[in-house]
């Protein structure tokens, strides 16, 4: 069995209602998908996180390294790709390209062996994942707190038992927004906040102290991803758990987070941090540091399926008989690529999503939809 082809598909869709967060505005969603095909015609899908055209260039650079190789040896192929990038791209977009290929190899391997990815990862702890709704981005117009509150209440009606909202507009505005959302969803729904590294340590500390009475599940990316000391100091000074890591790459990057005690919850993105091969190692590293982990996920159904399989294998540390279930991110912002590209669709029931049981990732790309999105991008 040999790898016969590595293809990329960059698709893009303009949004009907642009939104923004603390760093920039989104008026479209775009992604680079990867399909790796074996010489018997079996294929696997992967996805890279980041600027789609740049990820695509990285995949084209790496593809010759794995063509003609045995797809079952995905860990060896991962190392081959990483070694080729070691001198000049140990972090960033080329690692995202490795991630995309690696996810496709896991999907392909599962199909070839007739097993779902979660079994290949060591086996599921549960047949579902408890998901939280990521939304409450910022949009133009008046009455922002009321609009965010209405959106959060909608997710609760849809069955979500946890939600995550954006902060980073300034401390006073953030406090007003979070208070409105907490009032709308009540005390029993878990609420997390995400600043997308908008604040200095002292701003983040002021916001955290103001939000502590509102029972915040975690404060995500409060400071710059390079500010390890700021992370650690904030974690010491607030009772809100600190989360981060979506901007981090590889075991080496997460080792820095763990050694400096920066986070209570690590959030590697499988489509960016090194794929399933490397994120499985990050999971083991997190266990060694008694740090809980929940994957960051902001892509199509390919990304979500990969994260869903991984989440089904996770425990909450330190562990006890009545331990809570780990949470998995489920983006609910406008994204036609997520909603239409893959089949079957994922359904939320009582805050849970079932883990696919079909071989590989358990989802496929609808080629007709892929062609439609590709044609619209070309137009």
Tags for this entry?
Enolase-like, domain 1; alpha/beta; 379 residues; 9-stranded mixed sheet; TIM Barrel; 3-stranded antiparallel sheet; 41% helix; 2 domains; globular
Can you characterise this structure?
Helix content is 41%, strand content 21%. It contains 13 helices and 14 strands. It has helices spanning 52-66, 74-85, 93-113, 117-120, 144-157, 171-185, 201-211, 228-237, 250-259, 275-288, 301-311, 336-340, 367-378; strands at residues 3-20, 25-38, 43-48, 128-134, 162-166, 190-194, 216-220, 242-244, 265-266, 292-293, 327-331, 342-343, 352-354, 364-365. Strands 4, 5, 6, 7, 8, 9, 10, 11 and 13 form a 9-stranded mixed beta sheet that branches. Strands 1-2-3 form a 3-stranded antiparallel beta sheet. Strands 12-14 form a two-stranded antiparallel sheet. Strand 9, helix 10 and strand 10 form a beta-alpha-beta unit. The longest helix is centred in the N-terminal third of the chain and has 21 residues, at 93-113.
Give the secondary structure arrangement, pairings included:
Layout: E1 3-20, E2 25-38, E3 43-48, H1 52-66, H2 74-85, H3 93-113, H4 117-120, E4 128-134, H5 144-157, E5 162-166, H6 171-185, E6 190-194, H7 201-211, E7 216-220, H8 228-237, E8 242-244, H9 250-259, E9 265-266, H10 275-288, E10 292-293, H11 301-311, E11 327-331, H12 336-340, E12 342-343, E13 352-354, E14 364-365, H13 367-378
Parallel strand pairs: 4-5, 4-11, 5-6, 6-7, 7-8, 8-9, 9-10
Antiparallel strand pairs: 1-2, 2-3, 4-13, 12-14
